[in-house]
Design goal:
The protein is mainly β. Helix content is 13%, strand content 38%. Helix 2 (119-132) packs antiparallel against helix 3 (162-171).
């Protein structure tokens, strides 16, 4: 039985158009810090009889105008813009959605020159304004100053989307993080609010978080209330794209005209006898300042130097800690786990930079950031 309530809402106002109790996702729904995700759904639409389609299902699922909202434990936790609606002879409708962050990839940046300006209250908010100030989706912007000043120039002729510009800004070393947060517009809970939030860090840091996932047989080093009945896997990966100790960031151009960073190197690994593993990538197509590329390379090295160490946890969505109530994107969460790989227990704290929710199975999997990684990876 699903643990989620599904709503079809007006995209701009957030007003609930219709509840969609028989809506079924084709897989999981998810969220990532500073990124969009997608999902597909099936909606039964028999013309009459038991299980007949909701009265206003057409308006509640109109492509480009509506959004599907998932409510868990009374809180909106996911919203996806309906982009594709397909149906015909059969009594089933298929829907394809992208989360609200995807709208920013449909709006383009204008002409801007910022010199020594705050990265959040001026630059990020200014970029967001290109998507929200005129004919937007009713997205509020919450971007207080972080105190970090940066130089940025954008040209409308570069055809850069607001999404890609915000991603690039977040990707620079120490760049501001952003997400789109959901809530209710008021106590009546008849409309969903949408807020683009920009901070030096999204979410709450803690060395002793109150949200803790447990296997139910762990050593209880961390205090937990209730039981998420978690299962876990731990993966170590130094394959291409996951591990490297010599990194260069590049931009547009060819040969000697191509801007590129100085190599960012993990000298401690070379000193310990490691061979070189190289990685080159382009964080953006229009960066011309080497210092900016150097910062991107340094950031990528921090992610790749020791390879990926990926802890995957899957727990009950309807038990403590509950997504949207006890924890959310950007928060530090705890884990207290026991398995054949870690018979003495695996305990610690990690940052949740996203999540995957399986409404039909009733499970949630936080996407955890391991030490040395970066949120943009």
């Amino acid at each position: 039985m699903t643990v989620v309530t599904w709503l079809g809402c007006d995209l701009v106002t957030g007003r609930i158009v219709e509840e969609l109790p028989d809506l079924a996702p084709s897989g999981t729904i998810g969220a990532l810090l500073g990124a969009y995700t997608s999902a597909t759904f099936r909606l039964p639409i028999p013309r009459a009889g038991h299980g007949a389609a909701p009265r206003d299902w057409v308006a509640a699922t109109e492509p480009g105008r509506s959004m599907i909202v998932a409510v868990l434990a009374g809180q909106p936790v996911w919203a996806g813009i309906v982009l594709v609606r397909e149906g015909g002879t059969e009594a089933t409708l298929s829907l394809a959605c992208v989360t609200l962050e995807g709208y920013l990839d449909r709006r383009y940046v204008g002409d801007h020159t910022w010199t020594g300006q705050d990265e959040a209250s001026v630059i990020a908010a200014g970029l967001a304004g290109d998507a929200t100030s005129i004919e937007g989706i009713g997205l509020a912007v919450d971007a207080p100053a972080t105190g970090t000043l940066r130089d940025r120039t954008y040209l409308a002729t570069d055809d850069k989307t607001v999404y890609s510009a915000l991603r690039e800004l977040m990707g620079v070393q120490g760049g501001p993080e952003w997400t789109i947060a959901l809530g209710w517009t008021d106590a009546t809970q008849t409309a969903v609010s949408k807020t683009l939030r920009v901070r030096s860090r999204i979410g709450y840091p803690s060395t002793t978080p109150t949200a803790v996932f447990t296997t139910g047989t762990a050593s209880a080093v961390l205090s937990a209330v209730g039981s998420s009945d978690a299962r876990y896997t731990y993966r170590e990966d130094y394959s291409s794209g996951s591990g490297a100790n010599h990194v260069m960031a590049t931009s547009s151009g060819e040969g000697e005209t191509r801007p590129q960073s100085a190599p960012a190197r993990a000298d401690s690994l070379f000193g310990a006898g490691w061979p070189r593993y190289e990685h080159r990538y382009s964080p953006s197509s229009s960066i011309t300042v080497q210092a900016t590329l150097d910062a991107h390379a340094a950031s990528a090295l921090g992610i790749l130097a020791f390879g990926a160490r990926i802890l995957t946890i899957v727990g009950r969505a309807d038990a403590y800690p509950v997504l949207g109530t006890d924890w959310g994107v950007g928060d530090d969460i705890g884990y207290d786990l026991v398995g054949h790989r870690h018979i003495d227990g695996l305990t610690g704290v990690a940052r949740a930079i996203g999540w995957d929710l399986d409404p039909l199975a009733g499970t949630v999997a936080p996407i955890l950031l391991t030490p040395g990684q970066d949120v943009i990876s």
